[in-house]
Amino acid sequence: MAKLSTFTDGLVKENIVLRLMIGLCPVLAVSTTATDAFGMGIAATFVLVSSNICISTVRKLTPDQIRIPIFIIIISTFVTLTDYFMNAYAPTLHKSLGLFIPLIVVNCIILARAEAFAYKNDLLSSILDGLGTGLGFIGAIGLMGLAREILGNGSVFGYKLTAGVFSPAIIMILPPGGFIAMAFIMAALNHFTKKETY
What we know:
Layout: H1 4-8, H2 24-30, H3 34-58, H4 67-89, H5 91-97, H6 108-118, H7 123-153, E1 155-156, E2 159-160, H8 175-193
Antiparallel strand pairs: 1-2
Helix pairs in contact: 3-4, 3-6, 3-7, 4-5, 4-6, 7-8
């Protein structure tokens, strides 16, 4: 039986990036702009939800010994669809994300949810898990993309902010900026979600 917590846990409590620290490579690499960050988040979420649906549907027909290769085939099918769709309808974003779109196949987030959840649970629970985890991923990578673009380039979604408000810190759109942004976001999340202990 699907529970609402299956969906909500992936948003904050068990956020795949900010709590479990899984799938950090694309988060740090493509979050230099908000457009790239949200584009990667949406692409990964589509693959995650779609593969969760398929894996949960065929789980009782899948031999345990070959489940991982079957998971990878299912995931790679949806990654290929995403890659072609993005190349056709969002070529600028496709070019900007580059190799990170095909690398969704081996993204730890997708494979971890397939193995840990979709393979062991019913269809509705797997959909809720995929949506919750995916939206948590979009939130984390999107927040990083916004922070890095504003602080490092002085723009939001490519639109320049009012001139003279502040001078952009170029380091924020460089690799160290990803670690700095993630550290501050995680610190803020931990501060606002800390529990009282007695």
